[in-house]
Write a structure and sequence with these properties.
Mean pLDDT: 88
CATH class of one domain: Alpha Beta
Radius of gyration: 19 Å
Largest sheet: 3 strands, antiparallel
Strand content: 15-25%
CATH architecture of one domain: 2-Layer Sandwich
Shape: globular
Order of helices and strands: EEEHHEEEHHEHEHEH
Distance between the termini: 35 Å
Low-confidence stretches: 1-7
Length: about 230
């Protein structure tokens, strides 16, 4: 949950949910949590892995090692199910370095495209919500099965330009909910001394973050092209 002052409030938008901490009365320093939901995540990554390897993450890593960040300009949008953000878009869309739509990607490029595309989308929608990633975000915390994937975590760190920490609790969502319930009972935020321990999983490589800064501009334009083309 991020502390955001009144003048830094996220923009009003139809995307996502802005949750306000009900336990604080401080109007100048409200505690807010922005929730953005995406439908095509881990299942799509697994499906792509099955398509281009013998269903082996090690082979997927080998493919990733053959390409550099930005994937030589190839970008993929993997909406196997109707997506939430952008709303109700379905299908796969591939583009080359000249932003021309193509039918498919070679396995080497598809391996990186599915990971870069998913994380670029998350960064894009955070920025559209007026979240200042440079000044108001100091780290990313991840949990779940994918958090142990070294390649995935490194791409995440590079795209956001922030260190990534992995939560050690196997059921961190349930534990977090329990801690918040205690806060409600005590009527005092952060009243519990127990926390979910996190360890550093990856540090960003700033030279690649700069590459992704430019790639994000292209990604946003191509997403807009897809959305307009499906209306």
């Amino acid at each position: 949950m991020a502390s955001i002052s009144a003048h830094e409030m996220p923009k009003q938008a139809l995307d996502g949910h802005l949750l306000v901490n009900p336990l604080t009365d401080d109007r100048e320093n409200k505690l807010l949590m922005l929730l953005l939901c995406f439908k095509n995540g881990s299942l799509v990554r697994e499906r792509v892995r099955e398509e281009i390897t013998s269903n082996d993450w090690k082979e997927m890593s080998e493919l990733l090692s053959k390409t550099a960040p930005s994937n030589q300009g190839f970008i993929g949008f993997f909406y196997d199910d109707h997506e939430i953000l952008p709303q109700n878009i379905q299908g796969r869309y591939y583009f080359n370095a000249d932003d021309q739509q193509i039918d498919d990607l070679e396995a080497t490029y598809k391996a990186r495209a599915v990971l870069e595309g998913q994380f670029l989308a998350k960064r894009l929608y955070l920025q559209r919500a007026n979240i200042d990633l440079t000044n108001n975000v100091d780290r990313i915390v991840i949990t779940g099965g994918a958090s142990v994937n070294v390649d995935l975590v490194q791409i995440l760190a590079d795209i956001f330009g922030k260190p990534v920490y992995a939560a050690l609790a196997p059921n961190s969502g349930a534990l977090g909910g329990a801690l918040r319930a205690i806060d409600v009972i005590n009527k005092k935020p952060n009243s519990t001394t127990s926390t979910i321990e996190c360890l550093i999983a990856s540090e960003p490589r700033q030279e690649y973050t700069a590459v992704y800064d430019e790639m994000l501009i292209r990604y946003a334009k191509l997403e807009d092209k897809i959305v307009k083309g499906t209306k």
